[in-house]
Model the fold of this input.
Amino acid sequence: MPRLDTDALLSHHRLLLVGGKGGVGKTTLAATLALRAADAGREVLLVSTDPAHSLADALDQPVGNRETRVAPGLTALEIDPEDEADAYLARVIGQMRPFVRPEQLRELTRQLQLSRQSPGAQEAALLERLARLLDDTDTRYDLIVLDTAPTGHTLRLLSLPEIMAVWTDGLLRHNERASELGQVLKHLTPGRDLDSPLGKPEDHATAGMAARSRDLTATLRTRQQLFHRLRHRLLDPQQTGFLFVLTPERLPILETHRALESLTASEVPVVGLLINRVLPADTDSRFLQARLTRQQRHLDDIRERMGQLPQRQLALQEDDIQGIDSLRRLGALLENR
Done:
């Protein structure tokens, strides 16, 4: 079973996604890894989309929805999914406003507000924010560490083109120029299958269009190209890696295994496992001995199910991990010895 070299990951990658079942310590370890990379001299942005704002708790200082310096070389950002969904809808309505009449705008707004509650709406908004963030910060940071959930943001990324298709279909139904817009959308998403919207946009897609259609097409093409770049980056093993955090317990193992299969099928590069809160072997307690026996069965299960991945174990700590100094001490346990 290969050993996970976290320092090599932090040195060579540009984007590291840290995921895992809730309660296994992924936010703490995402912060630990980001701080360790910053201490090694990289300029790091640590991003969380957890609405519980647990990143601020792990760092033991306020963060919020703006880039905040929390340590030398380390900047943190908490994105609120609810706020981001509202801002996303406002942007879409603003972009569509010039292309529809006032009475159509009311219907468009109503439909978009209804879609606000649909499955995947928050993820779509978050992913657009992340895509723009990666574009905007590419030259300012050496590494972005993203604290995320595999069954949430990343897996839903693949359904995002379908969501976009539904919205554009709504525009078609309520616009008198349906046929003209239909030509525009066909120009952008031939076949409207999952892959087409993220296919590389053609260089002369607006050639020969009327000015009004060309403006709308340009708006949609900008978003199309944004997600094209995001998808290309997520699937590039030279710059991106997905790291799972789990504990040696049955439910985290099962969830991690399912998520691993989904990411592998989607060709997202998975770089390893961090097995957190492993009990120390030297104990005279009968209670802990029983726990150790069960833990060993779970560790054997991890090896059997996911033994092809590099792995690293982190011992259960005596105290809660909170604050820069505490995270730095935990990070020291990841040194190669």
